[in-house]
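Exercise 3.2. Students should predict the tertiary structure of the chain below and write it as structure tokens, then compare their answer with the key that follows.

Predict this chain's 3D structure.
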Amino acid sequence: MYGRPVWAVFCALGDTGCASVARGRGTMKAVILAGGPEVPKCPLSVVRPKALFPLIQDVIVGRLLRALHNTDVDEAIICANGKTRVLKEHFLRTAPDLLSLAFSDDELPRGAAGCLKDAEGFIGGGSFLVVESSLFLDGGIRELVERHRAAGAAMTIAAVPAWEGRRDAELGGCGVPLAPLGVYVAEPEVLDRIPSHGYFDLKEQLVPKLRAAGADVLVSQYRGRYRVVAHASSYASLVQELLDGELGLEDFAGLREVERQVWVTDSAQVASSAVLVGPVVVGAGAVIEAEAVVAGPSLVGEQVGIGTGAFVSGSILWPGCRIGAGASVERSIVTDHFRVAEMARLSHSVAVDTSLRVGEARGFDQRGYLVRAQGTPAAVAEKPRGLRGALSGLWRGLRGGGQGGRDQAPAETSAGEELSAK
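Answer key:
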């Protein structure tokens, strides 16, 4: 059997994995697809799946679940294949307070449509949503569901302009091509077209099969705001927009704005002589020592340590990383538990700690990223050449505030790879 039936998953997770809370007034269920292959391959995913990339006080999939709850979803199941354990552990620590959450794990790859078939017992008899986990959505879901029901469709595919800079074009206007966003509304009868075993894709196999059978498949332009996290530069662009408040202020709830565009959690410790220039968010338990400077747009995650006299500018620091005294970090993403040595310099880089999975750091299509990896804490020095254009998409996103469809994997120039894993 390729996929465990969803009822077995519920039983297996009864005591340890299914974060469940009181249900609200929602009327739909959602299936979150979080286990597919990542194309393009992102070096950040060595550390975390995209669904768990940190945002302000949340992760991408957590923010997505909140958006879905705001559009009448009260139950969701995450289909994550081999990533189920890490996702489950995250939600055990930070259980969602808005909806019931379950997980489905396939022993072998089943494809997006195969995951839906395995979740058939969870889906039940009503209309349901299917959403890819690496999306940021703000509005548009309710309107999409209404158009789906008004048309009497078996499945509705949310689509967005495929060309950069054309996201405001109307459906069918001027011949603008559309591409699937990764959001679908479907009726339970579509599950009858999916085999119970083997790999079965949603876009490449299920949709053509539905059309061949005469089922009504509607393509509808998505009307809400959206961002697609495809790689490091699109992720950085999303964080930039959140820090600037361009996507609303709900992410700052519970934070203290100690000065203009500088938000600090109550448990963070910031030395009186440290300088913070917004937009900056300092997460829970973070420590910023004397004479350190943090210039925005920067996100300082939970339990981050920034040493005396260190300089951080235009960067994203993931939980538990450490910036040594006198070190300089500019225009970079420093991932979980990475250590930047004292007086070292990190620039235009994605810094990953691959101590547990060193082999996975090799063979990536870097797509413009300068990747610095370490197996044990080690000094990180700036690469002497090749920085021009390195992670250029990241910095363009940080300063330019990427918009909507622009985040979908633009071409970038490879800047090579530097590994210092012990």
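Discussion points: The longest helix spans residues 232-243. DSSP finds nine helices and 30 strands in the chain.
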